[in-house]
Amino acid sequence: MEIVDARGQVCPRPIIMTKNVFDELEEGTVKTQVDDMYCVENLQKYANGQGFEFSYVETDYGFETTIVKEKGAEKKVEETNGNLVLAFSSDKMGDGDEKLGKSLIKSYIYSVAEADEVPSTLLFFNYGIHLTTEGSEVIDDLKRIEEKGAKIMTCGACLDFYDRKEKLLIGEVTNMYVIYDTLSKADGNVIIR
Questions:
Q1: Both 36 and 111 in a single domain?
Q2: So what's the pLDDT on residue 177?
Q3: Can you list the alpha helix ranges (DSSP code H) found in the chain?
Q4: Per-residue pLDDT tens for 168-193?
């Protein structure tokens, strides 16, 4: 049995910490310690999606989940898009609080980097170019995504507008025609604003 202490971690970290342990196990039990019910619910969704057994108990420090992977557990397979494109038009996610939005985008990109399969392409334009340039807090995660085979492309006109062309740290410079062409040929695309 493995124990993961994810107390004090915000989602998706408890899930990813647990997933990383299971990636090394053919079968076994992982107990994950978390602070709140939200993390418990997310761990349950993860376990259900993998075909693992799940239970939890309330403890003095919060909650302890127990996830059991039996040999030959059947992962619930969902059809994946072979050519998924993510497009980022901002350096934050959503229109609410700026601090929350920046935290969400950081967590989202981290989640993509931790995924077994990554999108084929990540596009960055308008204020989203700040995610691929000097000062970005997500460069390491973007590098991991790129290493897994994703193309990372940043709008050249946007880099020029914000005077950031010399500060590009990852990927390649592109243009609106290529951005249009990439989005139009995608099996699916998601625009993050």
A1: no
A2: 82
A3: 13-23, 37-50, 98-114, 139-147, 156-161, 176-185
A4: 999 999 988 888 888 888 887 677 76
Report the domain count for the chain.
2
User: Which residues does 96 contact at the CB level (< 8 Å), separation at least 6?
Assistant: none
What CATH number does the domain containing 101 carry? 3.40.1260.10
pTM exceeds 0.90: no
Instruction: Mark whether 56 and 93 lie in a shared domain.
Output: no
Same domain, 54 and 126: no
Residue (of 72, 30, 67) closest to 52 by Cα position: 67
Query: What is the distance between the alpha carbons of residues 46 and 114, in angstroms, rounded to a whole number?
Result: 14
Q: Does residue 183 form part of some domain?
A: yes
Q: Which residues of the chain have pLDDT under 70?
A: 73-82, 189, 193
Residue 60's CATH number: 3.30.110.40
Q: How far apart are CA 3 and CA 106, in angstroms?
A: 26
Q: How far apart are CA 6 and CA 103, in angstroms?
A: 18
Spatial separation of the C-alpha atoms in residues 11 and 136, rounded to whole Å: 21
- Euclidean distance between CA atoms 185 and 85, whole angstroms: 9
Residues 150 and 122 sit within 8 Å (Cβ to Cβ): yes
